[in-house]
Write a structure and sequence with these properties.
Blueprint lengths: L5 H4 L22 H7 L12 H24 L1
């Protein structure tokens, strides 16, 4: 059974309204994602794609892959 949080469902991590690249602190209100869940909305109407945050995600994933491959080589 998988687990998803509101930030995964509504893609807060790549939205311009979020204050950081993790999708925290929506400028529409901290409880806005909860309101979306309670209202059974499938998409956030305020979502705007932020390419800078998407680039940060790609860089972070690349760094994690590099660290993981280095650990495998050491052991």
């Amino acid at each position: 059974m998988g687990v998803a949080c509101a930030q995964d469902i509504y893609r807060c991590d790549t939205c311009k309204s979020a204050s950081d690249e993790y999708g925290r602190n929506c400028k529409h209100g901290d409880l806005f994602p909860l309101l979306l869940i309670m209202g059974n909305f499938r998409h956030c109407e305020n979502y705007e794609f932020d390419p800078q945050k998407a680039e940060l995600h790609l860089q972070r994933n690349d760094n994690l892959k590099m660290e993981h491959s280095k650990r495998k080589q050491i052991t």
